Amino acid sequence: MERGDLDRMAEVWLDDEISCVHPGWPVLRGRVDVLRSYALIMANTEYIQFFLTDVQVTVDGETALVTCTENILSGGPAEPDGGAGPLMGELVVATNIFRRTPTGDWRLWSHHGSPVLAGAEEDEAEDEPSEGP
């Protein structure tokens, strides 16, 4: 993803029925729609970098569940004067389900990313009634 390499991205996914939910997108099903979505994202993103945190991996037989927080830094096109374009940070919690293929390779079966609303815990604490005097 960071290199914008759609061919490599296609190798990560299973060949059969797959699904993907990007933050704010509807469910995409099938290789054509999923890979088209990545092509669209890559074509419209000048720069993207992922820092994964809170990674948890569970393997059960031929299936693996990987959850993590994607700390994403992305940016638009460079400024006309050659300076860096605008950068934006985003937090996404992701669930990835992998299946082991007959050749022993792990391939992505499903990806679901949900945005983390910044400050949500603080907002909830402010809304709670205070305890007596």
Characterization of the model:
It comes from Wenjunlia vitaminophila. This is 3-dehydroquinate dehydratase. Pfam families: SnoaL_3 (PF13474). Residues 2-116 form the SnoaL-like domain. InterPro entries: NTF2-like_dom_sf, SnoaL-like. This protein is of the alpha+beta class. The protein has one domain: Nuclear Transport Factor 2, Chain: A. 21% of the residues lie in helices and 42% in strands. It has 3 helices and 6 strands. It has helices at 6-12, 31-43, 120-127, and strands at 19-21, 28-29, 47-60, 63-75, 87-100, 106-115. Strands 2-1-6-5-4-3 form a 6-stranded mixed sheet, with helices on one face. Strand 3 and strand 4 (63-75) form a beta hairpin. The chain is globular, with a radius of gyration of 18 Å. The termini are far apart.
Name the average pLDDT.
88
Number of domains: 1
**Side-by-side strand order of the widest sheet:** 2-1-6-5-4-3
Strand content: 35-45%
SS-derived structural category: alpha+beta
Number of strands: 6
Q: How far is the first residue's CA from the last residue's CA?
A: 54 Å
- Enter the CATH topology name: Nuclear Transport Factor 2, Chain: A
Helix content: 10-25%
Q: Which regions contain 5 or more consecutive residues with pLDDT less than 50?
A: none
Q: Topology as H/E string?
A: HEEHEEEEH
Described by strand count, sense and barrel closure, the largest sheet is: 6 strands, mixed
Which CATH architecture?
Answer: Roll
Summarize the structure.
The protein has three helices and six strands, in the order H-E-E-H-E-E-E-E-H.
